[in-house]
Amino acid sequence: MKSLLMLLLIGFLINPAQAAIEAYEFDSPEMEADYNQLVDELRCLVCQNQNLAGSDADLAQDLRRETYEMLQQGKSRQEVVEFMVARYGDFVLYRPQFKSSTYLLWLGPFLLLVIVLVIVVRRLRAAAKPIEVDADALADARNLLEQDEPVNKVESDK
Amino acid sequence: MIRFALPLAVFVLMVGLLGYGLRLDPKKVPSPLIDKAAPSFSLAMLEDPSRKLSTGDMTGQVWVLNVWASWCVSCRAEHEVITALAKRNLVTVVGLNYKDKPDDAARWLEQFGNPYATSVIDSDGRVGIDWGVYGVPETFVIGADGLIKYKHIGPVTHESLEQKIMPILKELLI
Q1: C-alpha–C-alpha distance, residues B46 and B44, integer Å
Q2: What Rg do the C-alpha atoms of chain B give, in angstroms?
Q3: Interface predicted TM-score (ipTM)
Q4: What are phi and psi of B132, to 5 degrees?
Q5: What are B108-131's pLDDT values in tens digits?
Q6: Which of B33, B99, B130 has its CB closest to that of A58?
Q7: B26-36 residue pLDDT tens
Q8: Per-domain residue ranges of chain A
Q9: What does residue B141 show for φ and ψ, rounded to 5 degrees?
Q10: Of B30, B31, B125, which has the smallest distance from its Cβ to A62's Cβ?
């Protein structure tokens, strides 16, 4: 029983996701930071809810290598992003670019917020405004309330 | 009246959008390469690695590039469809042998038949990256003008051949 538990524990310690990371050497800490940011923000197309950094797929490995080599050649982060978008489309970007086709995506939440704020403010104003009542009708109602006798006696009440 | 009409309208809109979303296949990422020039390559042929095929050799004709590998199970499923397409002799069908071992690839073709005019070797998958390949099998239709006209992701079935690929080929070949 104990050895079985030990085996299970060892199984948890060996994490396949950690085993996948290649050891790349960078010329400068800036380049390493660029690399880490890129593999963090680029999507793996095989396992679509993972970024390149977190994926063990073959294609993710290849794209990490491609990213590393492009940076080593002195390409900028923007150039790597353009390279990926040209081949795989905007879908590779976890942080979409700000352009005409993504205006709604970026500005939509703020637009919704503005709409909701307008509705809330209008409602609050309407609630705060005193209700306008016809003065004659109000006097009538007051008279009725002050009368001792009910105006319409209900037949079944006797 | 508007108290009911507005929530109902929002509800109907949401159901419509979600219903549309359900019908989409998230695995199919539209290629940005459609109507763009086919990325060029010059790769060794599987049959004779001393000879090379380059995209330049194909200009002026309509052709199909089928990305396959011996390790790819669904390539086996689509193989008869690709064979059927090649047998019609309408277009040149070129294979891109993606991240494969040449020996395995040759054995695979021997076993299942070779429908390709030629297969070129992309052993490290670099040409695959240029073509935006992310799931084998993939099939591209390239026009005589050298532009990519259509990309099929996943195995080509007889239905998708007749309904999607053939109409495009017919239009290109007129």
Answers
A1: 6
A2: 20
A3: 0.84
A4: 70, 30
A5: 999 999 999 999 999 999 999 999
A6: B99
A7: 888 888 999 99
A8: 19-97, 99-130
A9: -110, 125
A10: B125
